[in-house]
Amino acid sequence: MGDTRELASAAEKKLDPANFPEMTGEMAAILGCVFKKEYTEPQVVRLYITPDGLMIAQWLECFQCGSLIGRAEDFEKDWAELLDVAGLTREEKAEVNRMLAAVLVDLRISAEA
Questions:
Q1: Is 113 inside any structural domain?
Q2: How many domains is the chain partitioned into structurally?
Q3: Is residue 111 part of a domain?
Q4: Within a domain: residue 76?
Q5: Which long-range contacts (CB under 8 A, 24 or more apart) does 46-51 make?
Q6: DSSP 8-state class, residue 18
Q7: Tens digit of pLDDT for each residue in 29-77?
Q8: Using CA atoms, how far apart are residues 86 and 46, in angstroms rounded to an integer?
Q9: pTM score, two decimals?
Q10: Residue 112 in domain
Q11: Bridging pattern class, strands 62-71 and 104-106
């Protein structure tokens, strides 16, 4: 178990879009947002989940613009699968999920509310 920088660096190497030729541009853009890398042009700087469960990307060049990524439910499934396929350790997964949470604004209304 390493410090957060070591965990993030190891996860970044494993999740590099170059390792996954079938990866969608949307997922590469999300990884770029999480790791603060320019994997795509334009670059995603923030992610939002709308109250009705849609995922929107905010682009660096246009803060008033957003692009629909898809359903948050689908993203969450694909994200978990990607972390497994990439071979991340439990600690690396926890760090990458922490990093994702730092750039994701989830506006869904919880069932507990």
A1: no
A2: 1
A3: no
A4: yes
A5: 46/103, 46/104, 46/105, 47/100, 47/103, 47/104, 47/105, 48/104, 48/105, 48/106, 48/107, 49/104, 49/105, 49/106, 49/107, 49/108, 50/107, 50/108, 51/107, 51/108, 51/109
A6: G
A7: 999 999 999 999 889 999 999 999 999 999 887 767 788 999 999 999 9
A8: 23
A9: 0.90
A10: no
A11: unpaired
